[in-house]
Amino acid sequence: MTKVHEDSPVLPTQQDEVAAAGSELIGGPLGRYARLGGHWLTPVRVVVLVALGMFALGMVQKLPCYDWAWFRGAGSQYTHACYSDIPHLYVVRGFADGLTPYFDRIPGDMQFLEYPVLTGLFMEIASWMTPGSGSMQHREQMYWMVNAGMLMVCAAVIAVCVARTHRRRPWDALLFALAPAFALTATINWDLLAIALTAAAMLMWSRSRPVSFGVLIGLATAAKLYPVLLLGAVFVLCWRAGKWRAFGEAVGGAVVAWLVVNLPVMFFAWEGWQKFYTFSQERPIDFGSVWLLISQRSGNPLEGANTYATGLTLLLCAGVGLLTLTAPRRPRFAQLAFLLVAAFILVNKVYSPQYVLWLIPLAALARPRWRDFLIWQAGEVVYFLGIWFYLAYTTSGDKHQGLPLEGYQLAITAHLLCTLYLCAVVVRDILLPERDVVRRDGSDDPSGGVLDGAEDVFTFPRTPKAPQDAAPSEGQRVEWGARPGE
Description:
Strand content: under 5%
Number of domains: 1
Number of strands: 0
Shape: globular
């Protein structure tokens, strides 16, 4: 078999059947004499342009709401599937009135902004750039547009980071850039801020910079809670590899960064600061969750769902840790990050449509196979449509315009099953590392940083030390087309 240089990029059309078939739209797979490099359209730039194009398509999809549906009652924004929290919260969370998040009380039941500090700052900065004159409808439109511009920058950052995390596999980032759920949900809420920081953290970890990784994870956790789960993945991987110093540096950086952002607000506006955490704890089961499905089907309100969700989350995280320590080969960092975040999503008390964004970059790195990715995305698109049409049904009165309860329950089931399917194939790749497409050239963990090529120092007794964890030699790196896809 022909050897290739270790920095040669992966050609997905030579490795993935779906990618090869899709490439027929633009001339077919790359041929033997195709020229790679030497052109301004590098893989990273192509990925960014595609991501921005999909983001723009998502903005177009919100056009009916932007023009009129946000302002003419609830039903129209649901029937057009173009709902966004952004314009509504501009008014009801006090930004339109110049209130300062966490410090000023908001009229109504919520009293304080129910978002983490860094997200609140993002929202506040957007309000500063929103014109304060004109009708309230115009100001809401401008606030959404300003936020969309800021979130587009976040999308570009995510695209760059995902494309560069696996040095030889920049094209895998097209899974993120072309994800239908990315276009549909990018401007529903402010999640892309935390996702961009998380993607940048993973890039730093892949470059063996644990302190920078920790700082970015701390900032991401100050914008959304879920990124802290990535420290759990680092913990078990460093345990198996004996890289405790890297883990300590990562945790130290995360704690310091989180405190720098949060301490000023904690000190001067404690009641407003803690609103996010008390709201998350006290919030009842809500749309999209497995607990809502169980409650509706059984007729049981499940008042203890918070305890069930917390306990099951801990149990699943422990299961991922056990899998890491018993697998025949140390799992890749991206695989564990995906499984931990997916576990959190699957058993959470609520599943908002934009939560899928948390998983898309992780899925692109954990399982870069178009077939499995599109199966999962199909389930997420079904849920995206299902939640809005169900809300249209519940707000249309006697018209019954939309999706009835049974249809919405099927949409929830589609989301759960498709997410579980993608988790299952990632677990299979961990248990059968020869099936892992990322490792087919003899690589260990391109996103692993200091863990890449490290030997195991701890596994459970029944798991022998895997010699393939060592860094592959040049002779082990073979031509990408040498092994066919699954």
